[in-house]
Amino acid sequence: MHFSLDFSRGIGYKKNYEMPVSCMRSASDMKSRKRAGPCTAVASRQRQILDRLAAEYSRYLRDLLQHRELMKGSVYHIQTRCGNPTCHCAKPQGARHSATVLSWSEDGKTRIRSLPAADRARVRRLTESYRHLRQSRAALAKLHRQILQGIDRLEQALRLPPPPASGQAKSRT
Ligand SMILES: [Zn+2]
Question: What is the pTM of this model?
Answer without folding.
Answer: 0.67
